[in-house]
Amino acid sequence: MYVNWDSQIEPISSLKWYKVDSFISYLHDVRQYLTQTIGKFSVSYLPRSIEQVLPATASQRFPATEGWLCEGLGEWSMKYDLLSLALNVALHPHRLERKYPEFETAGEVEYYCLMVINDLLHLLASPEEVQVIQRSAFEQKYGLRWAENSTVIGLPPTLSSDPVKVNTAVKRWKEDAGIDEEEVNI
Question: One MF term from GO for this chain (predicted)?
Answer without folding.
Answer: structural molecule activity
